[in-house]
Amino acid sequence: MSFDTLGLSAELLRAVAEQGYSEPTPVQRQAIPVILEGRDILAGAQTGTGKTAGFTLPLLQRLNDTTSGKGRRPVRALILTPTRELAAQVGESVDTYGRHLPLISAIIFGGVKINPQIQKLRRGVDILVATPGRLLDHVSQKTLDLSSVEILVLDEADRMLDMGFIRDIRRILALLPQRRQNLLFSATYSNDIRQLADTLLDNPALVEVARRNTPTELVSQVIHPVDRERKRELLSFMVGSQNWRQVLVFTRTKHGANRLSKQLEKDGISSAAIHGNKSQGARTRALQHFKRGELRVLVATDIAARGLDIDQLPHVVNYELPNVPEDYVHRIGRTGRAGNEGQAVSLVCVDERRLLGDIERLLKRDLPRVVIPGYEPDPSIRAEPIQKRSGAGAKTRSGNGSGQQQGKRSGGGGGASAGSRFSKGGRPETQKKRGSRRRAAGPG
Question: Among residues 125, 61, 131, 122, which one has the least CA distance to residue 89?
Answer without folding.
Answer: 131
